[in-house]
Amino acid sequence: MLEAVQSALATQGLIWLIVAVCIAGMVRGFAGFGSAMIIMPVASSILPPVQAVIFLICAELLGPLPNAPAAWREGKPRDVVLLMIGAVLGLPVGLWCLSRMDPVNFGWVVSAVVFVLLLLIMTGWRFQGSLTRGLTIGTGSLGGFMTGFAGIPGPPVIMLYMASKLPIAQIRANFLLYLLALDLMLFPLLWVSGMMVWPAALLGLIVGVPNLIANMIGARLFDPQAERLFRTVAYIVIACSAILGLPLWKG
To answer: SS3 string of 216-228?
Structure first.
């Protein structure tokens, strides 16, 4: 076990992974989302595709747990259940695509997805319709696919909720519950499918401790009245992460 820990800590680029995970934890605690869009561009520039996704999942397993009870009270768990029904349908397809993805192309795909999401949500467009059951399940299905394929579950759900007129506190709570549920579902699915890479999982669990602390700090900084700050922080962090994760920085 000690040898495995030493091997994990010898990972090239570990310091950047730790920095990304700590920043992501604060943003996740503050905004309820955005952590995958911070971690994955960095992780995909250091680790192979499957290992990057495994690292992300394990790094985030513990962090959101202290904030989950409050999110359950403030959010709409029924909507999260509908999102997860859709995610169950889309996740296996995404994992199949991930297993066949070239590492360099994977890095470009992850950063491109993050950039597109950022541009869309910064337009200020607002969803005018109602969040129907079919729309919610369909959005969850697309989010599940993106989880398996790129390790970024948020974009479809973020687009749906950030474009809605729901209160920021409720949006944040739903994000947190949805993303936590996806992580808890994806871990055993990777294990059962034979895609689990244990050194990457161990590395993620090790840096999960500072992620937990950062989540708690971020949650204490959240102010339901500070919507402009809420959105601005998310936009800046997402953009910086996508730029840093571009494969062109390699070698």
So the answer is: HHHHHHCCCCCHH
